[in-house]
Automatic annotation (TrEMBL):
InterPro entries xrefs: Anti-sigma_ChrR (IPR012807), Anti_sigma_zinc_sf (IPR041916), ChrR-like_cupin_dom (IPR025979), RmlC-like_jellyroll (IPR014710), RmlC_Cupin_sf (IPR011051)
Domain of life of the organism encoding this protein: Bacteria
Transmembrane segments: none
Pfam families associated with the record: Cupin_7
Protein name: Anti-sigma factor
Every ChrR-like cupin domain range: 98-190
């Protein structure tokens, strides 16, 4: 069960088609497995269509969307019938093979990475798959910019809690953490970074000049 979701503004931007391709992919992967957020996006899509028909140029605040969504969510409704999407379907289609069979590159300690930025040639962000070995720890680090992450397999924990498969995480330069893979399988994530991470450990910080 997903416990960490994209915020309302991110869902609004996704609905409006304003997100970059890699950011939209992260949300799409989350939506495939989260009926709660799918319902919110469906509502935003319907609301946007009505606004386009009636008022081509209308300024609507995020608080207004929150109010409308809250009202809709509190109304009784029948349980929708959903079809479970294939596991990591959109990403597997992009990569052409299962994520566990990719040519992972050992980066540091328990962490392996695969940069797939070349799959998005017209985007400025760095798009990276990261694998943290089961029971392993990632080096302590902060961020030089924004980082959007979705958990594709397994789970990890840090000071903010436990993030399971399909959970959505957004971090920036104010966040410092040291993820630990929990459970009996490797934790694999997809991250979109506007700038490289910054290692903060006593010894690992010396490696910062070599991190792109």
């Amino acid at each position: 069960m997903t416990r960490h979701h994209p915020d309302t503004l991110s869902l609004m931007e996704y609905s409006a088609g304003n997100l970059s391709e890699p950011h939209a992919l992260c949300i799409r992967l989350h939506l495939d497995e989260c009926s709660h957020c799918r319902s919110r996006v469906d509502t935003l899509d319907s609301l946007g269509a009505v606004m386009m028909e009636r008022q081509p140029k209308v300024s609507v605040s995020e608080s207004m969307f929150d109010s409308i969504l809250s009202r809709i969510e509190n109304e009784p409704s029948s349980q929708p019938v959903t079809v479970k999407a294939p596991r990591v379907g959109p990403l597997q289609k992009l990569l052409g093979e299962d994520i566990n069979k990719l040519p992972w590159k050992r980066q540091l300690g328990d962490v392996s990475v695969l940069d797939i930025s070349d799959k998005f040639p017209h985007q400025k962000e760095q798009v990276v798959l990261q694998k943290l070995a089961a029971g392993g720890k990632a080096p302590a680090h902060t961020h030089r910019g924004n980082e959007t992450t979705i958990v594709l397999q397994g789970a990890f924990a840090d000071q903010n809690g436990v993030f399971n498969q399909w959970d959505f995480v957004v971090l920036d330069e104010n966040d410092e953490h040291k993820p630990v893979a929990v459970g009996c399988e490797d934790c694999i994530t997809l991250s979109v970074l506007s700038a490289p991470v910054k290692l903060t450990g006593t010894f690992t910080r010396m490696l910062n000049p070599f991190i792109r």
